[in-house]
Amino acid sequence: MKILLNKTSLTESLRQFRDIGFVPTMGSIHKGHLSLIRKSNQMCHKTIVSIFVNPKQFNNKKDFKNYPKDIKKDLKLLNQSKKVDFVYIPKFKDIFKNNKKPKIKMIKIDKILCAKFRKGHFEGVLDVMDRLTDIVRPSKIFMGNKDFQQLFLVRKYLKRKYNTNVIACKILREKNKVALSSRNYLLSRENLILASKIVRKLINVKKNIKNKKNKNKYLSIVKNDFQKQFKIKIEYLELRNVNNLKLSNTINSSRLFVAYYLNGIRLIDNL
Ligand code: AMP
Fold first, then answer.
1. Best substitution site from 40, 146, 181 to test ligand 1's pocket, by max atoms within 8 Å of Cβ?
2. What pTM does this model have?
3. What is the pLDDT of residues 232-252, one digit of tens each?
4. How far does the centroid of ligand 1 lie from the alpha carbon of residue 75, in Å?
5. If you classify domain 2-169 with CATH, what class do you get?
6. DSSP per-residue codes, 99-127
7. If pLDDT is split at 50, 70 and 90, which confidence band does 79 have?
8. For the chain, domain boundaries
């Protein structure tokens, strides 16, 4: 596994390979990331993982400051996986300096779910994904369905500019059903037990929703109940179509999307 600290060394190392699989991450590597890496390793000749906590996608400074970082542990996990050929760990200026890119503006229909609650977040995500793709030039990018809206928007945006396929990978969960996430490192044991209760209840809600006439009205009642019962703040709980992310009143091709705060930590999931 070769560590690349800037785009000059990256370009030199990758130039000779054509079939490159790319797994962009913000570090704090967990089994969810490793599942993406395994997929890339199966489908591509070489696999490169990036670790970059992109300040531009944080709409809240405190959230950026508190985001878990442990590069030593990350490198150990990636190395142990034996599935990573290159790790790219750029500095901010390596990605953003001397490289003008068009300003990204979200269109109205995309200002839903996380885009509605995290102003500027996806503009920051799309900007960094544009730059990283430009630098790495992968044939495939592996992203998790855990961040479904992110994957949806990145795929739509990159399709116009690059000859790169964005491959969607399934959500990895703990035994207690909580989706793996770097932010889980910020949660206490009690928080994680509560997160598990919430996700299990949501799995039941997803089952029950079949019989409900007005599904999103039912979800707004469930949302209020959950907020009272678990003393949490839920930003959204919505059933949406996976192909266009429009609100849905059928369970076909639809997923239940949720974002909520647990002890000040924002968690998202979809089922
Ligand atoms: P992050 O480091 O949180 O930005 O995540 C990097 C990539 O890993 C994104 O494409 C995420 O969707 C994906 N990912 C995060 N958590 C999971 C999970 N539990 N299962 C599968 N993929 C995940």
1. 146
2. 0.97
3. 999 999 999 999 999 999 999
4. 17
5. alpha beta
6. ---PPP---GGG-SHHHHHSTTHHHHHHH
7. very high
8. 2-169, 187-265
